[in-house]
Write a structure and sequence with these properties.
The complex is a heterodimer.
Chain A lengths: L7 E4 L5 H11 L3 E6 L6 H5 L13 H6 L4 E4 L5 H12 L3 E4 L5 H5 L3 H7 L4 E6 L14 H7 L2 H4 L13 H25 L3 E6 H6 L3 H9 L16 E5 L10 E5 L3 H11 L14 H12 L4 H10 L3 E4 L3 H5 L2 H6 L2 E4 L7 E4 L22 H8 L4 H10 L4
Parallel strand pairs in A: 1-2, 1-4, 2-3, 4-5, 5-6
Antiparallel strand pairs in A: 7-8, 8-9, 10-11
Helix pairs in contact in A: 1-9, 4-6, 7-9
Chain B lengths: L5 E4 L5 H12 L3 E7 L21 H6 L3 E5 L5 H10 L3 E4 L2 H6 L5 E6 L14 H7 L27 H19 L4 E6 H4 L5 H10 L15 E5 L4 E5 L3 H10 L3 H5 L6 H6 L1 H13 L3 H10 L4 E3 L3 H5 L2 H5 L3 E3 L5 E3 L4 E2 L19 H7 L4 H9 L5
Parallel strand pairs in B: 1-2, 1-4, 2-3, 4-5, 5-6
Antiparallel strand pairs in B: 7-8, 8-9, 10-11
Helix pairs in contact in B: 1-6
The chains are: A alpha/beta, B alpha/beta.
Chain lengths: 398, 383
Amino acid sequence: MQALAGRRVVDFGHVWAGPFCGQILADLGAEVIRVESHGHLDVHRRAGPYPESGRDIDASAVWIAQNRGKLSCAINLKEPRGVELALQLAGQADVVIENFRPGTLDRLGLGYDQLREANPRVVLVSLSGYGQDGPWHLYPAYGPMMDAVGGLSFAARTPELEPQSVNGWFPDTSAALFGALAALLGLRKAEATGSPSHFDISEMETTIALVPELIALAAANRDGAGLERVHSNAVPSGEFVCVVPAEGEDEWVALHVATDEQWRALAELTGAELPPHLIAGLSAPDDATAALAVVTRTRPRDLLCEALQARGVSAVPVLSARDLLSDPHLEARGAFIDANHPRARRFRSYAPVIRGAQPTGNPDRAPLLGEHNRYVFEELLGLPEAERLELEREGVLR
Amino acid sequence: MSPPLRVLDASSGSLAASAASGLLAACGVTVWKVERGRDGDPLRAVAGAHGGPLAGRPHAWTGRGKRWIGVTAAAAGWDVLDELASASDVVLVSERDGWERLAGRSGTVCVTPFGVTGPRSDWRASGFGLFHAAGPGFVTPRAPAEGLTELVPPQAPWGHVAEHFGAVFAAIAVLGCARSDTPERVDLSLQECLLPLMRRETGAWQFQGYLASRAERLWRVAPSGFYPTADGHVYASVIENRQWQALCGIMERQDLAEDERFVTAESRFVHLDEVNEAIGGWFAERSSTKVFQLCGEAGIPVGPALGPHQLLASEQLAARGALEHGAGGDAWPGLPMRQAGEPPTPWPKWDEPAPGRDTNAVLAEVGWTEDRIRAARDEGKVF
């Protein structure tokens, strides 16, 4: 999609929330310039996983996956000249993304007031753990703990009612998504009125936005009624183990039997003596679940899913990373991109989730650190080549 | 919040699509919600057993701020839909027939579990099924470091996390279409919306042949994970050495700060049991609130595990006006986007619209005369 063709985004993001927000905008066709530095490497350049060849900050799998389609320039923001150039660059951007600790951008001299002075139509998207204000706003916030703070660990709690991590996936990514949505809204406003925007996105708030039913249910039921339910009021509904292969990982099917008709289809397919509890009015869900678990254990996962789906039952395989990469459905849809990366071997990462008729025109791989210094500092900011090289040697553009 | 934009939501029974257009309506977009048949959207029939006016009712939750148009489910209704679509900037659908037929001026976005192409395009999936079909379920929950001793079921969070997550992608896609020079067509798969979550796991498999599973710890650092407190649990993610030093400082355990076994995150992980034994008691003697406050002020990433009732009472959410409260004790998360320093834009009110409530007004806006509307009603095309 080329919805943002001709639009420039400066991405001061780090870790996940900021970079993922930038990637979504790159996937819509924006030119996204990642600002980073050797002195303060993104954690995902430092953390891998790396190819067999060993640690390489340009070849970290996570880095490659979540920075596809961007350009990279290196600026040391501890140097006054670096801040000056960063501000010049941001002044040429339609959107600026950051997920520093609240107040950091101001201290660097790159706050909203300075950005607005450099570009009166700028859209600044600030992502943070708790937002830009409030009593917790300066507390540190990492993804897995934000699962806990945002109610997701409660929503995924164990049968023993202990909270459980959801691996820190949703706080960062939901903030990134709302950040991208905010950027689009801000651009519409800037184009219509010429006025700037500063969006304040809190991971805690975007996380609870993923479980609105939980909040509303608790508000309406102060005694906690209903909160014990898992997934839905359909029974059976849950994960059932299938035939465990002789080698490799265990395989599971996620089943959601919502109607009598689906229950009958399930019983007919399996030939099992399944209790007609749904017809009888949800009288014996535990019996039904136990009976179903016995049946699924004798069936190969994929065949069971196909047969049940053909009968209108929501049955999907629980897929592993390996399964995903070779999944025929995802393959047929072009859900992955195989990019040739200069420092990693051919690498498969997820394709733009939002795919329109026209390609973005952006690179299909992530940039090397500082790979686009010449373009950014010479072509965009007008520095003579000699000065750019000198600043690189001095560590300002590094 | 944004200049006028008109979206025709012709989806049916799709929480994700309905939530997407609900988000857009909250952001100032004009949303025309079409319901095919007098019973209305199938989402109307979904009701939680314990809900208040909004709780457990996705139709109400996602329907705020929309205008409601009734169109017959019979074939005659398609002509009306064609006209509404051509008067809209973007059309949002959730089924193959709408995808193949309807086109907004700037594009069409189709939201389905697996997309409208590919061998599983006709498959159905619940919200937690989507979570599993995209991979996250395979690595949830995280088992203890010593590995699995029995088959641990994969697990998904309660509720409709996958649909709400996909809804934001869908809203982005709609705004993206609205900016395109030529009409766009976006076939959005909810399964694919979740694929970016697996970037680390797919990378580890490609580079190292390592398959992350439920036996893996998220971060091989310590302390990391849930710790019981006097009244609940907190999650600690102590990665940097300065954070460990700070934790030792507030625990007044200089001996731990100087212990050679614990000098790096990796070495602490090697000595995980000793770390947990050393700090577990300190956490267990204090409330989650106290631990959170002490750690937060010292820059240590520790957060309390909050249930929904605790979220409703959260001082942070209250200070930021991040929850909205309605009649009858209802409460719900506010729009999680705001201008810095300002409260979030309130969600539009839910006013229990009947199917077809705004049919006449919307058709008049697209140029239908009163006579034409009356005739269409008499013919049963609209209601």
